[in-house]
Amino acid sequence: MAVKIVTDSTCDIARDVVDRLGITVVPAYVMFGEESLRQGIDIIPTQFYARLTSSPQLPSTSQPTPGDFAERFEPLVSNGDQIICITVARQLSGTYNSAVQAAAQFDDGAVTVVDSSTASVGHMLQVIAASEDAASPDATVESVTAAASTRAATGFGFTMVDTLEYLQKGGRIGKAQAFMGSILKVKPILKVADGEVLPVDRPRNVRRGLQRLEELVREQGPVSKLAVAYTTDAAPAEEMRNRLSDLAAPEHTYTVQIGSAIGTHVGPGAVAVATLP
Amino acid sequence: MTTTTTVLHGSDLRQAMLGAASYMELYRDAANALNVFPVPDGDTGTNMLLTLRAGIDQMNKDADKHSAGDVADSIATGAFWGARGNSGVILSQLLRGLADGVAGSDTIETSDAVAAFRSATDSAYSAVSQPREGTMLSVIRGASDAATRANDAGERDVVALWKIAYDGAIAALALTPEQLPVLKEAGVVDSGGLGVVAIIGGALRHLEGDTGPATDLSLRSVGGLIDPAQTASVSIDTDFLDAHEDSEFGYCTQFVIHGEALQVDSLRAGLDAIADSTVIIGGGTAVRVHVHTEDPGAALTFGVAHGEIDEVKIDNMSLQNRDWASGHRQRSRPTEIRPGVSVVAVASGPGIAALFQDAGCSAIIPGGQTLNPSANEIIDAALSAGSTDVIVLPNNPNVVLTAAQAAEAPTEGVILHVVNTRSMPQGTAAMLGFNPEVSVADNLTSMDLASGSIETLEITQAVRDSIVDGQQVLENQFMAILDGRLVALAETAETAVLQGIVHSAVNEDSIITVYRGEGSDAGPAEQLQETLESTYGGAEVEVFAGGQPHYPYLVSVE
User: Is the ipTM of this complex over 0.85?
Assistant: First the structure.
């Protein structure tokens, strides 16, 4: 009997981390027309971006069903484990609601659902930190949940996109609409706060954008974990990681490729960075 | 003069103001031509004239005011809202000071006139953060000092005192090249100072009873050929009022009435009943009429009833978009002012205006490069934005003071802020630093930082021969001006960019943005782009069709 962490695949957590920490990942769906594909199972990022940039129609995304969550909760509950499920921000996706509906099918207290209030690698760092907490011998559902909720309120992340077009078409642009201008080819920097996409800055090119991202991260104070992510081009993410290498130890620094769920909305050429205090 | 005038009444002040405007009109082109930089903008004469007219317009609206103090207040109020350009703002402050100096007075004696000149001087000096001598400030002070000395010496004739003040202004104007080396180098007197002389001189002519058409003030000995008789293009007859105006009425109608014993007051009363913005200059056997009306026929019929009409000029103002009849118009405010921050920008050129709007600017105030907007136009745009805080981007050094004046004006429920952008590219940079989701204070900081992070290179053709910073500039040469400093001269606009940009901090990390001007072709700009990219390997070069007038290229380096 233990505290186990479940999450959804939108956080793009890497396979080796999942295996090492014993995390359960419930896949989200990406749909090209009628074709429904499970993230990370039926389609991997390289395949996804090839289709995203060549397909005449934009894909859409769909949250895991309550059944998908219940299917993963079931063996853990049967094993006597207690589950904390950390999802992508509920304002951005129906994933949280699916998890809550699935949790209702089990005994009270068997499954606790936590809203990460963010997405992508910010969400991922919360999942990793909660899994480390859960591995502690004196971990309880209450203590791990409390720490996870605190992180949901204090972690932060920024994403620089090549274009806001994908966020707009996917209906997730939120207040970043204000940066929708297209005459100057800016690289908008956005953040998710309280589950909402907000505009931050408009650097003129990637080089200036990376400088700005670095400033934004350093302004936030001490860092315990750092993650960088990219959709199609790893080089800027690697540069970001190098620029910030003094902030977090290598074993607490992560680089991931963003998959189909977030990739549908941020599009090719995006770079993200997230930290936990 | 044989008679002594011990007091001036409100009606004298009205007459003096009309004289001031008609002489400012006469000297407008001369003042415009005195720009030290031979660039086709910053029209001091036009800005001062339009500001005066805004004052007259308010004065005419307030026809029921009779005391000297009240008339002066109407003039100052109108000028405040209609102030255009730096010289217009300083003039409006001067007029405000003048009004403060005679506030509450029914009539003006010499001591009141001295108080008014002193107050006007103080107010004009306080309009600029770093007052410099050799400018219109020195000229109004020259007038003020002379008036003070005369009053102290016992002069009690107000018109005689005014004449002494006028002589003091001329003497001060003559000194301006000695005070400002750039004037001496260019061989000119200060343009705003010339405006002040024309205004005081025009007022004097009318106070002396000469209300006929404006004639030369014989200033030519002061600073070269500045009297209109020596400048070819000026004609009060054909150019009575600027063609860039409008009001709520449809046609700007101008004509001359030739008749017998024409009474300005009764003519005005008659015209006010059928038209708006009435300006009548003259009297006796000839008057010049300017009205705004929806039915020019009625105004002409009125004229014919009083004599023979001549020099008829009718402009359809709805086809134009400028307004000097400002300050008292019903503002069209949005129904709701929401908490939040928005931006309005002064911009000229369709491409640049589109860029500002695309980047999230709520309203564009046309102008900047050529005709400068009035404080009132800036306020109208700010109120149309619909938010409690509005940031104004003046985008031109000659609009910065107007924007500051607009920000000081009372605007219910809306606070105006100014980021002192001095070029369109600076404004664009500031715009990219704008984020409607953060506080106005944070926005002001980030926008200021963003606008300060770029250098602006402006390319324009010299409008006349001149000497600038020790360099001989020939008419039609392309000047490369980097943040207000002449850095290169060339025979083509593209060469001017390439030679000018060398003086900036450009390097292989730079972002170079090129805004090509009105009527330009894409071809030469693309070639320029390729040359810049190969010269500064690694630098990003973007070209936009800015469509700005007079400047074939505006370039920002960041």
Answer: no
